[in-house]
Design a protein that fits this description.
The protein is of the alpha/beta class. The protein contains nine helices and 21 strands. α3 crosses α4 and α8 crosses α9. 50% of the residues are buried.
Length: 351
């Protein structure tokens, strides 16, 4: 496989090199790999080991990301690669995210070129391309090149990200990225060390702010509420307050139910009551759109008009079952609903 040189690294005098894709900023010796195993030092040059290696391809509704305020009901070509820069306990996609890409790719990944991805999205009637299932910055160069072509073909683009990239990486993809669907997993250093092997989560917060303010991306936040880890009312309150005051009260916040898995197999499923309390905290600090995820049929799946309180978008899991928005406004009272919408949830133009 031809090597694709990394877009972001700094050569060092001893032949090693500092990777500048994520905030770990690994110093990689000659012949060595970075923490994620998606970057290798080839004779002083850092190269991608996963360029174009697609592990997962699926057409999925935007609600599955979850993104609720950007063309609800639209279909997206959803692609996953290999590798991750975090090691989250309980990861649902460990096979493609945690194992070394060179071991996983054999027989599991299909190599595609950017033009092929864009053609596939158009052939399948998708509104855009969504980079998901593993951390998209792990194949930064491939996603960026594909996004540039996608924009020329009037397709939207979406990162489903843990947010732990460098500012340089964010600015590299920023000009051609429409949605920044970011996990803010908790709001304490202790939690991030315990759950994701990260010492400082401040860069994640800074990237969410920069995605919105510098690059005008549509930002939605997801927090999986894990019993005994990040479900304390104080931590939930601090996170909710940060979203409301820094990203803005119109920012959608998704509170997702945790289901026991892998390293956290002994942790109980998040009680619905815990999610309800967290959602109330979000509303109490001023957020207008707070959602309950992974609980089919819960009223918290719906979007409510912040003025009249009526359902403007009704949902059941990933399906839109009611749509009461006209010209981006509540059809009952005329209140502007934050986001980008379409006249019907079945069809919407790209740009």
């Amino acid at each position: 496989m031809p090597k694709v040189e990394s877009a972001l690294y700094e050569p060092l005098q001893d032949g090693s090199a500092r990777c500048m894709v994520c905030e770990r900023r690994c110093v990689i010796p000659k012949g060595g790999y970075g923490y994620c195993y998606t970057r290798k030092n080839e004779g002083g040059r850092v190269c991608s080991t996963v360029y174009g290696e697609v592990s997962t391809t699926q057409v999925a509704p935007i609600e599955a990301k979850p993104v609720f305020h950007f063309y609800p009901g639209s279909r997206w070509l959803s692609l996953g690669g290999l590798g991750c820069n975090l090691r989250c306990v309980g990861c649902q996609n460990r096979k493609i995210a945690h194992e070394q890409p060179c071991e996983v790719s054999q027989g599991r990944a299909e190599r595609l070129e950017p033009k092929q991805v864009v053609a596939m999205a158009k052939e399948r009637g998708c509104l855009g391309v969504s980079w998901t299932y593993n951390e998209p910055t792990m194949w930064l160069e491939f996603t960026a090149r594909t996004n540039r072509i996608a924009k020329k073909e009037n397709l939207y683009t979406n990162y489903v990200t843990n947010g732990y990239m460098t500012r340089e990486a964010l600015d590299y993809v920023g000009p051609h990225l429409d949605i920044f669907r970011v996990d803010i997993k908790g709001f304490s250093r202790d939690f991030y060390r315990r759950a994701a092997n990260v010492d400082d989560f401040e860069p994640i917060l800074e990237n969410a702010l920069r995605a919105k303010s510098r690059w005008n991306m549509h930002v939605e936040v997801v927090t999986t509420v894990i019993p005994g880890y990040n479900d304390g009312e104080i931590e939930i309150g601090r996170l909710a307050t940060w979203i409301a005051t820094r990203l803005g009260k119109r920012t959608p916040w998704h509170l997702t139910r945790f289901i026991a898995h892998r390293d956290l197999a002994d942790v109980p499923t998040t009680p619905v009551d815990t999610l309800d309390k967290a959602r109330k905290i979000g509303f109490d600090v001023g957020l207008l759109y707070v959602y309950t995820g992974n609980v089919a049929g819960h009223p918290g799946e719906n979007t409510y008009c912040p003025k009249c309180g009526k359902v403007v978008i009704g949902r059941y899991q990933f399906s839109v079952i009611a749509y009461n928005i006209e010209d981006d406004r509540c059809k009952y009272c005329g209140q502007k609903i934050a986001g980008i919408f379409q006249q019907s949830p079945q069809a919407g133009p790209g740009r």
